Amino acid sequence: MAGMLLERDAELDAVDEALAALTGLRPNGSGPAGRQRGGLIAVAGRAGLGKTTLLTETRRRAAARGCTVLFARGGDQEQGVAFHVARQLLQPQLARYADAELRASLGGWYGIVGPALGLSGAADGAPPDPQGLRDGLDWVLTHLGTRRSPVVLVLDDAHWADAESLGWLTAFVSRVEDLPMLVVVAYRPEELPETAEAFRALPGRAGGRPVDLEPLTAPAIARLVRERVGKHADDAFCRECWAVTAGNPFEAVELSAKVAARALRPDESSAHLLRDLAAAVKGTGLVHRLERLGASTVRMAWACAVLGTEISPRLAAAVAGLGAEEAADAADRLREVRILTGADTLEFVHPLIATAVYRAIPDAVRVALHGQAAWSVIDAGLGPATAARHLLETHPENDPLVVRTLREAAGETQRAGAPETARGYLARALREPPPYEERAAVLYELGCASLLTEPATTVNHLRAALEEPVADPALRAAIVRRLSQTLAHADRLGEASDVVGQAARVATDARERLRMRAEQFMWDAFRADEPDSPARSRRLAKLADRLSGRDLTERYIIGLRAWDITLRAEPAHNAVRHAERALAGGLGWADEERGFEVPVLVALAFMYADRPGRAEDLFADGIAAFERQGWRGAHLSFGYTLLGYIRYRRGRYAEAEDFVRDGLRLADRVGRGTPVCWYAVTILIEVLLARGRTGEAQRLAEEYDFGPPFPAAVVFPDSQTVYGELLLARGRHEEAAAEFAAAGRRLEPRGIRNPSWCPWRLELARAEAATTPERAARLTDEALDLARGYGTASGIGQALRISAEIAPAGERPKVLHEAVAHLERSPAAGELARALVAYGRALRCAGHAPESAEILYRGLETALSCGADRLAEDARDELAAAGLRPRRLRTVGTDALSGHERVVAELAASGLAVPRIAERTGTEEREVELLLSAVYRKVGTDAAGLAEALHTTR
């Protein structure tokens, strides 16, 4: 072994240093080296420079130190096989468990990672998204790393790793410094695919040690040659060996073997023969040497080259068309000449040899061998996904069996979480081509596989599918729905609506027509450019009122009506009634065909109606469904982001920020500029402004190019209005007013008037109060009327609070007193804190400092409990201006109700008014009001929803 690792002392020192850091032991095992620390060693070098040998020695040294070693090798022929490398790494560790034990160990990840790792079949239904699968693989590897630490993960020939595995490992490596895990990879830089840019940047990062292998010097080659042909090899001979191999250790070893086999004298007299012998080690020389071994041996070598790595002798014989005895003889000859190695499983001695043999196969023969390999692996029971990579290398021949096999492989691969690979199989199936009557189905499947990656391409596939004659009405309907979904996700909501609208007009089945109308209502609800929104609203109301909710389609329509009521500021209790009707039979969050939009809208209808606790419960169910399904990209990002928005509406700003930042992190993985990213950035800016961190909000806006033009889709909260709020917070009143006015011009024609959903009137009034106070007053009056019509305590309180800002100073205390009274009956702690501080300020300015004290103390406490840091500073300033100092704060309660709060809450829920509760409990009426205010904020409801909320929290 030492002879094979000449001039690699520095590299081995790096390995020993990394292993010492990993194990916490000194390289010589003499004692502790310090804290265990993971890392990365990236070995780069041209073919034959000894990467594999270095990795083999690394594995040996790791095992000697008691490390668990995971090993995989990329394969030239297996690059298109999804998760080929991941399976090599993880399957040996997991396959030793019985199925029940494995399920218990992996928990919820079993159904997500099992199919990708070949541990279980893919279940029917929606597959995990690629990011969800990566998270699952991360969990499995991290779990192994902690349970069997220390772990050394070794990947050879990473340039040939499949894209799915390489992408996963590249992302995972960033965390290994914090794990008891060392990752060692070897690759040829010049052969990395274009898609591996992130991998190319790894060396030097994540605690990495970049190792670039150089050719051996002449003395090292001389030593290597003498170890194999004898110490009597003279200097001239050895130097010529170095010259003809360019210091490549693999070529030098093979050349030495040829010299020994031909019994050449290793001196100057034989030096002139070395160049021809070296040529026989690789390229055409190797091919000529192979051809001299006979036709059956050549076919066996070709079959092995087509099959790739870990070759079954029986399968190779079948592909080569050889009998068992003839194949065994051929394998023996190939082992003798150092082309193959192994017995039960065959391998090429070196990837260079495999590449040379494969490239030497005549084109027509290579195509035929791949075709034979495809059917041989099917016959061997290895499944369509194993056969598919071979079918990709064959020529189209109008063969229905090829189409069927590729479609089955694509379905299996997509359900395992590899849509990119599935796309390749289906694209090849189209070129076969499929039978005329199957073409639409193949195009549809291709569109489904492309949905997450290339929306424009998906649209083309699905439109092409609709142009085909489709005999099956269910298939045509599925194509239409998927096309509308894709258009909507590409921010082409008008087209999405038109597609399902046209399908509804021509549908002959009444239930299918209703479902298409439901889809159209949904996309129209998100359109910012809907041409006649009031007419659509009237149709929706008429339809929803007569539906019973007997199936999912009817419940979706009823849920959309609940959302429409919310937007139009119709009474909130009607929105709650329809939302409850929609939920009565269940709404699925993880329904691939239906999407998750309507369940989200129903949950948010509760939030705006002052039932945020109910909304949180629904989102918790939805997030759990996404995680079970492995949907950890856009779906989970929306879930966390909007859950954060609910916390914001409740005045829990620190929790809101945490959730929204998690949502933004997930959105970044999906891609900047996507709808989910707009939602996350919009809401995070809103939260930061509420916390008084205007500068941070501005930096976030600049980082994500948050500003005009805004998306065509409706985003909540409204992005343009939030942008105006950011401008207003920065003192740019005129620009802010322009944005608020533009938002109003966009929303008003659509009938979207609820100030609780979008407070553009209130914010415009604030922006224009100094310049056009009369117009500002009209705007706040309009907003207050709309808020009263909607009927939520939080909405009315917010409108009153901002009305007070516009009102003459003498009227402000009265208006703010009413605002506080409403907000005390709401779950909106943040709005209550603002109103209390404003009320205290107004009282102080009116000369009522003693009365203002208690109000300001309450405002300060509430602001601090919300995490509204800037508002708390304002409250302290007001107290100081009143000649008061902030007293010791009362403990701010958590979600748990105190005993006294529980008593008054249950009495209120039973229908008793405040005076009766005060009488029953022997408490002052004002104290009862304050206790109930805390109850509403903690439970997350208003008075109307209190009984139900208490029932669900028991």
UniProtKB/TrEMBL annotation:
<dbReference type="GO" id="GO:0006355">
    <property type="term" value="P:regulation of DNA-templated transcription"/>
</dbReference>
<dbReference type="InterPro" id="IPR027417">
    <property type="entry name" value="P-loop_NTPase"/>
</dbReference>
<dbReference type="Pfam" id="PF13191">
    <property type="entry name" value="AAA_16"/>
</dbReference>
<dbReference type="GO" id="GO:0005737">
    <property type="term" value="C:cytoplasm"/>
</dbReference>
<dbReference type="InterPro" id="IPR036388">
    <property type="entry name" value="WH-like_DNA-bd_sf"/>
</dbReference>
<feature type="domain" description="Orc1-like AAA ATPase">
    <location>
        <begin position="32"/>
        <end position="184"/>
    </location>
</feature>
<keyword id="KW-0547">Nucleotide-binding</keyword>
<dbReference type="GO" id="GO:0005524">
    <property type="term" value="F:ATP binding"/>
</dbReference>
<protein>
    <submittedName>
        <fullName>AAA family ATPase</fullName>
    </submittedName>
</protein>
<dbReference type="InterPro" id="IPR041664">
    <property type="entry name" value="AAA_16"/>
</dbReference>
<dbReference type="InterPro" id="IPR016032">
    <property type="entry name" value="Sig_transdc_resp-reg_C-effctor"/>
</dbReference>
<dbReference type="GO" id="GO:0003677">
    <property type="term" value="F:DNA binding"/>
</dbReference>
<dbReference type="InterPro" id="IPR011990">
    <property type="entry name" value="TPR-like_helical_dom_sf"/>
</dbReference>
<keyword id="KW-0067">ATP-binding</keyword>
<dbReference type="GO" id="GO:0004016">
    <property type="term" value="F:adenylate cyclase activity"/>
</dbReference>
